[in-house]
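stuck on this fold:
=====
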Amino acid sequence: MKKVNLKHIAKIALISFLPPFLIYLPFTLKIPRLLFLDLGKDGMLNIYRNWDGPSYLIVAKSLYNPEIIKKLLFSPLPATYFSAHFPLYPLLIKLANIFLPIHQAGLFVNLLAGFALNLLFFEFIKNRTKSPYFLTLVFTLLPARGFITRVIIAPEPLLLLFTLASLIAFKKRKYFLSSIFLSLAALTKFQIVILAFAYLAVFIKELLQNKNFKKFVQNSVYLAIPTATILILFYFYKQIYGKFLIFFEAQRVNNLTTSLPFSQFNLNATWIKSIWLEDLIFYFFLMFLLTAKLYFEKKESSIFFFFAAFYTLFLTVIPQRDITRFSLPLSPIFFYTFPSLFEQKYIKIAFYLLLPAIYFYTLNFILGNQAPVSDWSFFLQN
């Protein structure tokens, strides 16, 4: 039996929990102003109210029941809108709500998922770098938009945890386990079903190389697990809302349907409304760089290449300003592919110099990304 390394767990815990604690500190102490930044008087409500946290709390409280949703609504949204918020994260919040108030349960689940994600990420990259703890810290804080999802009520850490677990299992050819983890990821956020197409592409590639159709069928059949998972969820939605594909209607209501490539660069689009979009060029460059690098290494990491290629293509047609958040499932692969970059002394110096910018960016984003929840009484009722 392998001995538990408490020192290692303590280091990962410090990396996982200290940065969120430093974000919570000024809100917990209700410091009205931090240098140039006005923090207001609402304290931790600034954290709890951040989008899409209240929406996930509504699902956790209502379990999609339209009558309960109507009592909890804080904006003129139809009950069907909440079908876009998949159930795994809310169910875990519901479970934690047994011993914590629901808003604290949302944070608890997210922080725990972030810790588990960092433990898994460390194992994923420890043989690829001489500085695995430093790289885990970088992964925690960059991109800064990803760090924000770790400190509010958000499903992304859970999504990344199951996505990375699925990829690791697939790389080890544990296809059943990989499909189970992919199903859990898909129950967290729908977009990760693209990973199933990447798995299928690997199986097709092996079929073309080996001409072994029987093995192709044996491997591909595992993809029925995440497929069935989504179909069962949609059937559940049909029982609640009367429509099997209500999720896609909710996406249309929310103006999150696919469009033409690079439609993010449209001043008049619903989720854009800005010309200040140069950062998207940078993130697309990083995704193309990752895909190109993996293409030339595809013999070793073909699943990473197919996932990066398919997922990047998908992101080009999402008319959303928040591409950084959507791209987070690729971040573990990015650090896995370019580990030596983060071993350089000048990179480490630059990263540490960047920490105050990450801190104030996070606080500023949280203050400006608030759902209009003024009455928490319905949320806090059991």
